Amino acid sequence: MPTEDFKETVKQQADIVRVIGDYIKLKKAGAQNYAGLCPFHGEKTPSFSVHATRQFYHCFGCGVSGDVFSFVQKIENITFPEAVRLVAQKLGIPLPKATYSSPGEARDAKLRAQLLDAQERAAAFFQECLKRPEGARAREYLVGRGLDAETIARFRIGYAPDSGFLLRDRLVGEFSDEVLRESGLFSWKQEDSRQPPAVSRQQNQSGGADGEQQIPRGPSPARNDKDEGEGSEPTTNDQRLTTAIYAKFRNRVMFPIANDAGKIIAFTGRTLAADEKAGPKYLNSPETAIYSKGRVLFNLDHAKEAIRKLDYAILVEGQMDCISVYAAGLHNVIASSGTAFTEIQAKLLGRFSKNVVVNFDPDTAGAKATERTLGLMVEEEFQIKVLTLEQGFDPDLYIRRKGKDAYGEALRGSQKYFDYLIDRARTQFPVRSAEGKAKAVNFLLPYVQRIPGRIARDELAQEIAQKLSIDSAVLRQELRHVAAQRSAATLKTTADVQATDAERILIRALASARQMQPGEHLSARDGAEEEFDPARQAQYAFRSEGLHRGLATESLVEALLNAGAEIADVMEVPCSDSERRTLASILLKEEEELSAERLEGAVRALRRIHLRRQMEQLQRELKKPGVSDDRERMRELLLELERLSRALRDPSLAEDGLGTAGSKKTA
Predict the structure, then answer these.
(1) Contact by Cβ (8 Å): 245, 220
(2) 449 or 299: whose pLDDT is higher?
(3) Is the pLDDT of residue 242 over 80?
(4) Nearest by Cα to 192 from 236, 247, 227
């Protein structure tokens, strides 16, 4: 884990606006504020704010907040130490030797690094094998798919030989048994050591054409002492079970899968064999510590700059489709690797553009995958179009048969998302009858419900009504019901704490305590010798007089007062989501400097509020049954009421324009 000194060095040099601006578009929204669309939830109206001076971000939509490190950690889905190092790399700050908070963290980081290295070495091995004589059939396959040498090299396509041991022999001396097991490159099984090892049998069958060395009988060279005997049955003098490892990918064209940083993390292998023992047509790496298929988009490392520049992405289903479209000159193409989109993939793509053309296979399975993907992406507020090719054509075949120009023309004719869905509804449910119209509407309503904007839903209702020949008033009634359900689900999360101007000023002052660095001095007021510390003045007012008691912001003030020195970021103060939104709102609207006069005015305003609240309490007490009969109690209450009234008339508490109990503003 990076040292505290290194973290502070990086944080002081990091411009959070520039770092976050590399991921999302930010626009100036005040003296020190920048705003943009939140990358962590779908929205059309910017609710994500970044404060340039205080160096923090906050989203008023989903409530996330933090500093530059937490942003990078969340958006890159990496650990905190990795986020610190990544920010340092962006700034060109030399990295110290990595240290970790626990042996487990160090072990995990080391394993991840070794797994990345193993995938890289495997990719280089597969590339070598493609160029050898045994890779001739794989080369013929790739040429038949229309790929030239430049494209093959760009995507680092290779060939896994029809041997279970060549890759093992390449890696076994460089990586531990654990790394080989966790890499996803190998399969494991036990065999009787009295029999010749499988490698010898395969050499006998192939005549040693692969150039493999004879593996001695006994334990596999990849095993260590700890593994010996794992899962073994009782042995006799002439019998022993050993664990052997075999390459998972054999006689396959290999397509490396990289993360968006360009690091190879997994593979897809396309078989060249036609017999029943060949296994599935496409074989994918299992999920590992560095690879999860729902978190990666194929070719994003190559496509992200084109996506950002053109402001839209082409989403296809498989690697070969993606490579063919890319080779045709459309470099903003990515693939979902045969699965429906996940929320993580949508957020990953949304960092580069919110516009996408989806081009999945038009068969039944492909259509269902398209609908699932579109349903998720509309919730993330993507602007979506759907490209449906002729029956029997996927993007790869279409380009090979009809050419890249024809594909480009088809791309320009892509349908809007709901035009595509309405056409599907009309196809599945003939709308000549009332029953058919009802089924078509019921088919469409779940998709309509996912649209966040009420205006967009209303416009869509008109369009659906027109295309299905349905009374729009009836349809709008159904949509209003859907909208009501949607708004009811969000009302609970949008109510915020109310705060007066006086509360805002004093909360800003409290928060300034966590803005100071060790050894930093605040400027003195008007050149006086005693330094003006707004945090100290606010703390004294709240603690000595309890001016926050009974206010809507009472618990937020308590949280700030009780925050320990270990909390370096004010947005990390323990409090509720609505209080954190209030705090962010206050800090993001720092339009005037915290002067001594403003703080004194705020304290006077809260004193007035406090006195009035006490008077109201006394007046309620006076009205209680039986109090008028107790003359002594009555006298005490009246004297206290008079005292409070005189205090409220004190010239030192004169109104100064700050908020009072009757002039609240929404935080």
Answers:
(1) yes
(2) 299
(3) no
(4) 236
Residue 245, classed as helix, strand or coil, is strand
Packing angle between helix 554-562 and helix 501-511, nearest 10 degrees? 10
- Judge whether 301 and 259 are in contact, CB under 8 Å: yes
CA pseudo-torsion sign 161, 166, 170, 171: positive
336-342-347 Cα angle (round to 5): 95
- Buried b / exposed e over 191-222, threshold 16 CB at 10 Å, is eebeeebebbebbeeeeeebebeebeeebbeb
Mean residue pLDDT of the chain comes to: 77
Q: Is the pTM of this model over 0.70?
A: no
What is the 3 state secondary structure string of 303-344? HHHHHHHHCCEEEECCHHHHHHHHHCCCCCEEECCCCCCCHH
What CA–CA distance (Å, rounded) separates 418 from 371? 11
Residue pLDDT, tens place only, 441-483? 888 888 887 887 777 777 888 888 888 887 766 666 665 565 5
End-to-end CA distance of the chain: 38
Instruction: State the Cα–Cα distance between residues 447 and 423, nearest whole angstrom.
Output: 14
Using pLDDT thresholds of 50, 70 and 90, give the confidence band for residue 568.
low
Count CA atoms closer than 13 A to 13's CA, side-chain side.
15
For 554, the token pair is 């009472």
Dihedral sign for Cα 590, 67, 297, 418, please. Answer: negative
Beta bridge partners of 282: 270
Amino acid at residue number 31: A
Residue 242 CA to residue 218 CA, distance in Å, equals 7
Length of the chain: 667
Backbone phi, psi, residue 455, to 5°: -65, -40
Residue 487 CB coordination number (10 Å): 11
